[in-house]
Amino acid sequence: MSVDTADATPPSRGRRRSRLLAVLVAAIRWLDAVRIRAHLRRTERSLRAADTDRLDADRQRRRHRALDALRRYRRRGRFPTNRSEPERAPQFVGANGVPCAVAALLLADGERDLVERVAATDNAVRIEDLDDGPLLDWLDRNGLSQAEAARIQPMYASDIYLVTDCGPVSCAVARALAGAAAVGVFAVAEVVGYRLADGLFPDNSFKRRGALAYLTVMNLLLAPVLGILLYALFP
Questions:
Q1: Contact status, residue 40 vs residue 73, Cβ threshold 8 Å
Q2: Residue 39 domain-assigned (yes or no)
Q3: I need a labelling partner for 121 at 20 to 30 A (CA). Which of 74, 176, 214, 224 fits?
Q4: What is the pTM of this model?
């Protein structure tokens, strides 16, 4: 059986562009999910270590239950998508129907009506900006302060943005660590490239130098990109 390839046409440029865009969007979302998981993991660890002696027994119990729900939410690894704000911003319930971390705690406590009401009236609400209302009342009943809830609440990006809060270290240290990692990768790639070029062209110095020059240029282009991505991942 023969296959007639005359009618077979390559994918259009538009389709290739759409596929490339889909891959890029998936990569961006994966990177942001890594950032959010790291943020929630550090936040949960900090909140569990906080002094809660001021809370009565019921609030302490409810607080532990809320933090357990936060851990389950983080481990599921599904986070809201931001399609309404042009920059990194809260999304109480994302365009994909996934609740944010704070909304997930409310849902775990049976507060679906409150979640739906907040999502309908102010989906980009920032916990730290609230003065009163049912959200703050719920936090008080569950042994969480407004500042702690604001720390739990991540920002969701419609694109990759460099963060301004570098977590438990200063941004200068974060930049230094990301830069050191990029330099280390560059150095390792240079050593590996030298050995590969030497093995591929042992008797042709011209080709060997050309291959090394090509690898060096590629490393100089990719190492800064790696450093920027590493810095962007500091929650």
A1: yes
A2: yes
A3: 74
A4: 0.59
How many domains is the chain built from?
A: 2
Cα separation, 151 vs 169, whole angstroms: 15
Q: Which ranges in 77-133 belong to alpha helices (H)?
A: 101-108, 112-121
User: Around Cβ 210, how many Cβ atoms within 10 Å?
Assistant: 13
**In terms of residue numbers, what domain contains 208?**
171-232
Q: List, for residues 61-107, the tens digit of each pLDDT value.
A: 999 999 999 999 999 988 887 776 656 677 889 888 899 999 999 99
- Same domain as 105, residue 50: yes
The residue count for the chain: 235
φ, ψ for residue 86, nearest 5 deg = -75, -10
The reply to whether 163 falls in a domain is no
- In 3D space, the residue among 30, 31, 104 whose CA is nearest the CA of residue 72 turns out to be 104
CB 60 within 8 A of CB 52: yes
Q: How far apart are CA 144 and CA 121, in angstroms?
A: 23
The amino acid at 40: L
pLDDT tens, position by position, 117-143? 999 998 888 888 888 899 999 999 999
197 touches 208 (CB < 8 A)? yes
How much helix, strand and coil, in percent to the nearest 5, is found in the chain? Answer: 65, 0, 35
